[in-house]
Amino acid sequence: MDIFAAAGLEKPNISILSDEFLAEVRGMPQRNLAVELLQKLLKGELATRRRKNVVRARSFADMLEQTIRRYQNRAIEAAQVIEELIQLAKQMREENARGEVLGLSEDELAFYDALETNDSAVKVLGDETLRGIAQELVETVRNNVTIDWTLRENVRAQLRVLVKRILRKHGYPPDKQEKATQTVLEQAEVLSEMWAAA
Predict the structure, then answer these.
(1) Are 95 and 114 in the same domain?
(2) Domain boundary among 101, 124, 155
(3) Predicted local confidence at residue 6, as pLDDT
(4) What are the tens digits of pLDDT across the range 142-185?
(5) How far, in whole angstroms, is CA 12 from its chain's centroid?
(6) Would you tell me the crossing angle of helices 54-72 and 177-197 to the nearest 10 degrees?
(7) Is the dihedral of CA 131, 135, 136, 142 positive or negative?
(8) In angstroms, rounded to a whole number, what is the distance separating the alpha carbons of residues 149 and 155?
(9) Is residue 110 located within the same domain as residue 64?
(10) How far apart are CA 73 and CA 68, in angstroms?
């Protein structure tokens, strides 16, 4: 069933989730339909983000899941869940400008987020160092991934060593390096598919 047609709305450009569209959804008389519509749009947006930035997509997916679960358990009303989903949509839209503010490309921002999941690293190293690490990681990963690197264990091991070396060089907290390396490699896997297609 076409949710947009049932709600009497034109199919929007979901990559933008404009204020006008969100206001239109907020004013819909069929609250349950509005919730379904927003949920579908946000899941579509998350699928797109998952192909670019694993960490942020996971974070937004968790927020979406918690909101929907509370709604399904009747912990919050339809009007409240609509407001929360609209706020989530706005956060996703604002997320697009974050890279510009930090002075990072989209790929660099993805690695920056992979490193930033560790709060103590952010406090110890600071944004400037994390930015440098992210930029160096993008360059290193881009230069060292091969088409079949995810299937060949020796190439994966070499990339793991390179990532750990970069983290150590910049003073990334040793006790958090393994988790950061795993996250960076997961992010590298996603981005290398995009790089190979380009």
Answers:
(1) no
(2) 101
(3) 62
(4) 887 766 666 677 877 888 899 999 999 998 888 888 888 899 88
(5) 22
(6) 100
(7) positive
(8) 6
(9) no
(10) 9
